[in-house]
Amino acid sequence: MSAVCSSRRFGSGGDFEGSWVRATGPDTLARSPNFYVHCPARTDPTAAPPGSDSLMVLLPVANIQQILRSQEAERRRGSPLAGLAGSLSAAADAAVSGGGSSPSASSSSGGSGGEVDYRSLVAAGREAVLRSFAEAGMPDLKRHIVDELVIDPVEWRERYGLAHGAAFGLSHGLNQLSVFRPGISDKQVRGLYHVGASTRPGNGVPLAMISADLAVARVMQDVGAGVV
Question: Is the N-terminal amide bond of 201 cis, ω within 30° of 0?
Fold first, then answer.
């Protein structure tokens, strides 16, 4: 793992646009998707046993709502892909089990209006990540894996109550960027303030901390003005 520094982003592989597509299943996953890698043991030796290393891989995929909408669109078009969903999931069961992934990766859920099973996407994503490492000069990474833990959008939702399993909150489309995100002070409930990734200025640790600072300033301002 000497080729990987503390943090690094992989992706593209010659298909820049395709690498940014949020996959809804194995068939829509780019061959070289964008993903982020962090090696915490490089700055914190306690993050791995002596002589070992630990990796955190963040692979963006479609959230629960996006997958349900994609499945509904496929059904309306009468696509044969919808009928293959069960076969893909069954095949993925064997792939994930054989790959040593944690059972927590194989989660399915009754989301709003239907079930979402990420097992086939997890299996395909795992292979894409390992392939990217191999192409970057680390072909034997797979055989060095001792343990794995996978958290998919279903678990993000069930463990932390995140809507649709979207770990970073609202998306950053142009209509939800910066000042177009929900404001700090609620427009309908006096004394209610919003803070975090889904409000202004946006997601990510630095921006979420700025959001907290803005919220405190707004609360103090309103208290001083007798608003709350």
Answer: yes
Please report, for the chain, how many H helices and E strands are present, in that order: 7, 5
Q: What is the pLDDT of residues 92-111, one digit of tens each?
A: 333 333 333 333 333 444 43
Residue 174 has φ and ψ, to the nearest 5°, of: -60, -30
Residue 157: both structure tokens together? 């939702």
Amino acid identity for residue 212 in this structure: A
Mean pLDDT score of the chain: 80
Cβ of 65: how many Cβ atoms within 10 Å?
A: 17
Calculate helix-pair angle for 85-99, 119-135, nearest 10 degrees.
50
What's the token pair of residue 80?
Answer: 């044969």
Asked if residues 54 and 48 have their Cβ atoms less than 8 Å apart, the reply is yes
Sorted by where each begins, the domain ranges of the chain are: 7-165, 174-224
d(CA 211, CA 207): 6
